[in-house]
Amino acid sequence: MEDQDKNKEDHEDQNQDDESNPTKLKSKQPKKLINVNKPKSCKRGIVYLGYIPDGLNVKNVRVLLSRFGEIDRIFLEKDKSPTKNKASKRAKFVEGWVEFKKKSVAKLVAQTLNGTIIGGKRRSPYYGSLWNLKYLKRFKWSHLAEQISYEKAMREQQLRLEVNRAKKEATFYANMIERSRHKKQIFNDPNRTYKQRVTDEQIKQEKQTNELDDDLLANIFK
How far apart, in Å, do the first and last CA atoms of the chain sit? Predict the structure, then answer.
C-alpha cells in the first residue's frame, strides 16, 4: 500500500512538472496526418516535334495530342527559308514544342507515338505522315523563350549588317557614277584644251634632230 501511494505521488508530481513546462506539452501533441488524397505538384514535360508535315498547325497538334493528356502551351517555328512557295497561303512549319502539364504524360506520348502515323481526318494532307517526337529531359519553357529571343537578336543583328553593307555598296556606286559624269563633263567642255603626252618615237626624233644640229654647227665653226 505504501508503495502504491508513493507511485501516485510521483505521478502527480510529474504531471505538475509537465504542466509548468510548456515545451513538454508541445512535444506530446499529436502529429498532423498527411493527406494522401491531396495531389502533388506535378512537373511539366516538353516534347519536341522534329518534323511537321504540310497542313499541321497549332490547332491540329492540340487536338491530336490532347487525347493523351492536358496540354498547356504549343509553339511551332515557321519556315522562313527563301525557297518557300509564296503562292501557298497555308503556313509551313519546320519544328515545334509541346508542353504537357504532367511530365509522365510527355514521356509516354514521346515513347508511344514516335514513328507512328499521325492520323486524323483522311482528307487532311498529314494523314499518312509519321510523328517525329522526342522528350526533352530537364528542358523548361523558359529555355525555349531564351533560345527564341537569342535567335531573334541574331537575326536582327544580321539584318543590320546586311543593311549597312547595302548602304556602303550604294554609296560606292553613287560615287563612281558621279565621278564618271564629272569626267564626261570635263571631256566635252569646248573651252578646255588638252595637251597630248609625248610618245617615245617623238622623243627619239627630237634627239636625232638635236644631234644633226650639233654636227652641223661643229662643221661650220671649225
Answer: 178
Grid cell listed for 60: 491540329
Neighbouring residues of 129: CB distance < 8 A, sequence distance ≥ 6: 51, 53, 56, 117, 118
- Please state, as a whole number, how many other Cβ atoms lie within 10 Å of the Cβ of residue 127: 14
> Residue 75's CB: how many other CB atoms inside 10 A?
17
Q: What DSSP element (H or E) covers 107?
A: helix 103-113
CA Rg value for the chain? 46
Cell of residue 130, nine digits: 509519321
C-alpha cell of residue 179: 565621278
What are 76's strand-pairing partners?
A: 96
Instruction: Read off φ and ψ for residue 183, nearest 5 degrees.
Output: -65, -40
With H, G, I as helix, E, B as strand and everything else as coil, classify residue 100.
Answer: strand
pLDDT tens, per residue, the chain with 222 residues: 545 454 555 555 555 555 555 444 444 554 444 343 444 546 889 999 999 998 889 999 999 999 999 999 999 988 877 665 555 667 788 889 999 999 999 999 999 999 999 988 888 888 889 999 999 988 888 877 777 777 777 777 888 888 888 888 888 888 888 888 877 777 676 766 666 677 778 777 777 777 666 666 666 666
Instruction: Identify any residues that bridge with 130 across adjacent strands, giving them in sequence order.
Output: 117
**Length of the chain as a residue count:** 222
